[in-house]
Amino acid sequence: MAQLTSSEVVDGVAAIFLLSLALGGLPYLLFITAILFWSRNKSVRAIRRLSYFAPVLFVLVTAALSLAAIPFGIALREVFLFVVIFSVYALLFGYLYVFVINYLYEIFFGKRSNT
Predict the structure, then answer these.
(1) Keywords for this entry (predicted)?
(2) C-alpha distances in Å from residue 5, one per residue of 12, 13, 16, 48
């Protein structure tokens, strides 16, 4: 097996990041815009409660937007496979972020501003 050069590794990592941005960027932009719009004038408690559902909601938004690729010649099977694989990563990292942020919030602000 051939050894990868450092430029090939950098190119591969860059390609993965660009693909992630292309496939997840638009759904994330739409999702976060909707969440920010919704969160205006909401309590910290309501926003934190929503944060625990956010990864699942994001997966649903991404799945719905992925169906838009079908008219462009992408097979339903490929779209389904993308959604399944993407969902695993989105849920894993999404909940990791949610728990870390909520944990840090609890450390720095505690119960004093949960209203």
Answers:
(1) Membrane, Transmembrane, Transmembrane helix
(2) 11, 13, 17, 45
Q: Is 99 left (phi over 0), alpha (psi -120 to 50) or beta?
A: alpha
Q: Which residue has tokens 């990791």?
A: 96
Q: What is the DSSP code (8-state) at residue 75?
A: -
Kindly report the pTM of this predicted structure: 0.68
Domain ranges of the chain: 25-113
End-to-end alpha-carbon separation of the chain, Å? 59
pLDDT digits (tens, 9 = 90+) for 79-100: 788 888 888 988 998 999 999 9
Classify burial at 39, counting beta carbons within 10 Å of its beta carbon; exposed 0-12, middle 13-18, buried 19 or more: middle
